Amino acid sequence: MTLADSSDVPVEPIKSVNDKRKYRSIKLTNGLTALLITDQDSDDVEDEKEETVSDDGEEESEDGESGDDADGEDSDMSVDEGDDENEGSKKPAKDSPSEKLSAAALCIGQGSFSEPDDIPGLAHFLEHMVFMGSEKYPDENDFDMFIRKYGGSDNAFTDCERTVFYFDIQRQQFYDGLDRFAQFFISPLMKQDSVDRETKAVDSEFDMSTASDNAKKQQLMGTTAAPGHPMGKFMWGNTKSLKEDPAANNIDIYERLQTFHKNMYSSHYMTLAVQSRHSLDTLEKWVREIFAPVTHNGKDKPSFANLESPFNNDRFYKMYKWVPIKNVHQIEVTWVLPCQLQYYRTKPLHYIGWLTGHEGKGSILSYLRKKLWALKLDSGNGETGFEHNTTMASFSINVTLTDEGLDHYQEVLSVLFEYIQMLRNEGPCERIWSEIKTIEDNSFRWQEQREPMDYVEKLCENMQLFPPEHYLTGEDLLMDYDSKVIAECLNCLVPSKANIMLVSKRFEESGECTEKEKWYQTPYNAVNIPDDWISQWADIQPRPEFHLPAANEYIASDFSLKEVEEKLNTEYPTAIVDTPQGKLWYKKDSKFKVPKAYIHVHLISPVVNKTALDAVLLDLFILILEQNLAEVAYAADVAELSYSFKPTDIGLVVKVSGFNHKLPKLFETIIDYLSGFKVDQDVFGAVKETLTRTYFNQMIKPSKLNREVRIEILMQSYWTVVSRRQMIDDVTLPMLLGWVEQFKSRLMVETYFHGNLLPQECKDMYGYVLEKVKCRVLPGYALADRRVVELPTKDSYVRVKTFNEGDCNTGITNYYQTGPGTLHMAVVNELLNMQMEEPCFDILRTREQLGYGVFSYHRDTCGILGLSVTVQSQTSTASMSELNDHIENFVKEFGKMVADTTQELFDTLIDTLVKLKRCEDSNMGEEVDRHWNQILTQLYFFDRIPKEITEIGTLKLDEYKAWYKTVMMANDNRRKLSVQISAYDKTPNEESGDKDTQKFKDKPTSVTSSGDTSSVISKEWTLSYESVSDILSQSGGRAIGIDDIQKYKDNLNILPVSRIVSQEKS
C-alpha cells in the first residue's frame, strides 16, 4: 500500500495562505482519484456557454473577445543573457483582459517496473502509442492538432513506477481537450502501421540518449542490480528490444501492447489533477462524465515493495571506472537504503543531503576547493523513480574533479567518508533541521503560482505518494523532527556499503576499460575496492576542518509588504534615475503581493566581446567570481536568495532575487567581490581547466553546434564556443587581470529594481554600485546595435562534421530569412509558425519518422525576422541531403495548407494568438523577465503586447497567404540558409575519440602577458566542412555551398540596425 492509499477522499489538501486557488478531491466510482483546482478570481464570472459543447466538438468563444534545444547536463555559457533571438512574445498585457491556460495531468501508478522481461521498453513504447488516435477520435494526430490549434502543448514520460501524461489549452476548449485526453486511457487505436512507425521514434529517442552520460550511468548502475530485479531493466526501448528481438522470438508486439494497456492502464491506478478558471462544480461534472468510461481491471495494484534490496550484492559494492562522452572527471559515491517514502514528514535524506552538499565553511566542497581538487559537488536523492521507489532509496555524493583532484581521488574519497563520520559523531542536529524547516515554510507560505501545466503534472505524481491532505505539502515541507530516523540513515552511509563510480576520458587513453555495457556499449572496468582502503575508512577520524554550518544569517524574518505613493504604482517600469553614467528602472509590485524583489544590473563596457578572446576572458571572470563567492554566499542561496552572472554582447549582467528582507546584504556582498576581484594562479588554472572542458562539452552536442554555426553566419560578429575554445589555451593570469582592470575602468550601468522595495532603497543600492565600480560616461557606446547579414536570394548550404566521432546524432535547421521587422510583420510571422508547428511535427516526425526532435520556430534575430524548421536525426535514418528534401517537401505541403486556409480557420488562429498574448504571468519572475528583456535590448517597448494584440486585429487572410509564399516557398526572392551537422559513419555503440585530449593536444600557442589581447592568434579548433555537392548538383544553379563562413559573409550585405518598437520600421 502507498501512502496515497491510506486515507479515503475527499480530504482537502493543506495549502498556503498565499494560495488563492480552491481545491476539491474526489474519487470516481471506477476508483480514479482526481484533484480539482480552480484559479477563478473572485470577480470572475463563468460564462455558461463554456459548458456547452458545439456539434463540431468546438466550444463557442465568449462574447466580447477578440476574434512556443535541450540538454541540461551542463550550463550553456556561450549563450548570452541578451540572446541573439527569441521566438516571440507570449506574455500578457495588463491592460487587456487576462487569460490563463487550463491544464490537466494524469499519473498511472505503473511504469517500467511492470513491463514484461521479454520486451524491454514496452512501458515507454505504450506511452508513445496512446497518442496515435482513438476509437472516438481516430485521426492519428487528432489530439496534438487540436491542442496546438488552441494554443496548447502536451507531453508525457515513463518512470520506474509511474507514467505521466499532461497538456494545457485555452480555457474555452478545455472540455474538448480533456475528452480527447481521456481517450488515451479508454480506447486508443494503436494500429499496426502506427506501431511500426512509432518504433522508429522510440529508437531515435534512444539514439539521442546515447550522447547523455547520465543515461549511460543509470544503465550501468542497473547492471549491478540483483538478477531479475526491475532496477536492472532496460527501460528506454529501441528497435532491437521492441522489434528485432520480439520478431526473433515470435512475439506479437501489437498484441502485447493491447494486453499491457488493459492490465496497467486501470482506473484505480490513476490520479488526475485538473486546473482551470471554471468552477469546481463544472470541473467535477466534466471529470466524472469524461473519465467514467476508463475501465477498472478488477485486480489489485501490482506492488514491488516486497522485493529485496536490488543492490545488496558484491556487484554493487565495487568501484566502476568508465569512459564518458564529455570531457569530465567525476567521482560519485552511492549508497542504497530502504525506501524512505513513509518518512516524508521528516525527510532524512533531504537533511543529510543539505549538509553534505553545503558549500560554506566546514563543508566538503569548501575543503576540496581549497585543495583545488574540485569546484563542484552535488549531493542527495534526486527523487526520480530510479533514485527513489518502493524497493529502495539511493543517496549519492557526486564530485566534479579537477585534473589534480583525479590524481588524488582516493584522498577525495577519504574526505567524503570523514565528513559523514563527523555527521555521525555530531548526531542529528535539531537546530539545523529546524532551520531547513523554516526556509521551506517561508517558501511555501509566500509561494507564487507556477504555470498550470507544470503544477498539475507535479500534483498528479504527488497524489500517488502522499495522503490527500498533503498533496501540496508532502513533497517539500518538513513536519516532524525524528532524530532516530535520521540517525538510521546516517548509519547506512558506511564505506563498506558504497558503490564508487570514477568517470574520466583518461580511462579511454589507458585502455583499462575493457568491458562494455550491453545497451549503451559504455566502456567500463569493475574492480574490487581494496581491503586496506576499507579497513582504513572503517576507523577514519574527521579532520578538524569539518564542522556543522553556523546559523544562517540570510533567513528572512520581515515579510511586511511596503507601501509607496500611488503615482509610483505604475503599470510599467519607470526610470527614477537617468544620468549619463547610468539608469535606474523601478517598478513596485502591486499584483503578486509577496515580500520578494528582483535586482538586475547590467554593467556595460566597450572592452567586452571585441574579439573571441574578450569573450573567453569574460567567461573566466564570471566563473572565478562564482568560485570566490561560493563559500560566503552559499547561506544566502539555501535561504531562497539567488544570484547569477551572465555575459551579454556589451557587458555583464548581475541578477539577485528572493525575499527582500536580506537581499541588500547579499547584493552589497556581490558588488564588493566584483569590484575587489582577486584570483591567484592556482585558482585561475583550475577554473581555466574547467572552462576548457565546458567549451568542448558544448561543442560535441549536434544541436548546440547547429545553433552556433547558424548564429555565426547570421550575425556580423559572434563568438562561438569553437572560436572560444581556439583562444582559451593562450589565456594567462596577467592577461585576465589586465582585462578586468580595463573592464572596471570603463563602465556605465543600467539597473532594474522590481518588487517589494521602496524607491529610496533602490537608489541606495544603485548608488552603492556607482561608488564601487566607478561608472562613467561612455559616449556612443550605450546602445547594443548588433547587426545581421542579409542572406543571398540563392539557397545557402553549410555542412559541418560533429566534433564527437562516436555520436550518430545529426541535425539540420533550414532557416528562411524575412528581413528587418515591424510589429505587423512580427505578428504575421508568429501566426504562421503557430499554424505550422503541429503539421511540422505530424509530417516530419510522426509520419516520416525522420527523428525524435522536430520543431519549427518564429525567429527574431536582433530585429531581423525569419522562420525555421529543425530535424534532429541519426545517420541511419537519412542523409543530410534527404533531410533537406523532406523539409522542402514539407514546406510545399504546408504551403498548400496555407493556401487552403479558410476565413473561419484564420479567425480561429487569430483568436488563439490573441488569447496566448493575454495569458497572465503566473509569478513575479515572469513579469520581471519580460520587462528586463526590453531594458537589456534597450528597446524599452514595455507595452509591446497590447500593441501586438491591436496589430493582430489588422491582419488579413490574403496578406497572410502571400507572406508565406514569399518567405518560405521556393522563388527568386527567397533567402534560405540550411545548417547541417553530420555525424561520422559509425554506429552509436562505437567508441568516441577524445578530441580534446588527443587530436588537439599539441596546439601551438601565441600569447601576450598583459591585458592587450589583440595579437593572440590560434589556428586550431576549426570547423570541419563537408561538401554539399549532392545538393548543389540538383539546384540548377540556385544554391551556394559554404566551406568558409567568413569568406561567405564577406560577400554579403549587412542589414541596418532593426528595432521593433512600433508598427513602423525602425
Automatic annotation (TrEMBL):
Residue intervals of the Peptidase M16 C-terminal domain: 254-438
GO molecular function: metal ion binding; metalloendopeptidase activity
GO biological process: proteolysis
Keywords annotated in UniProt: Hydrolase, Metal-binding, Metalloprotease, Protease, Zinc
Residue spans of biased composition, Acidic residues class: 40-86
Biased composition (Basic and acidic residues): 87-98, 987-1004
Domain Coenzyme PQQ synthesis protein F-like C-terminal lobe: start-end pairs: 831-932
Pfam families: Peptidase_M16, Peptidase_M16_C, Peptidase_M16_M, PqqF-like_C_4
Region feature Disordered, mapped onto this chain: 1-101, 984-1013
Annotated ranges, domain Peptidase M16 middle/third: 444-722
Ranges for domain Peptidase M16 N-terminal: 95-218
SUPFAM superfamilies: LuxS/MPP-like metallohydrolase
Record's GO cellular component terms: cytoplasm
Stated family: Belongs to the peptidase M16 family.
Listed name of the protein: Uncharacterized protein
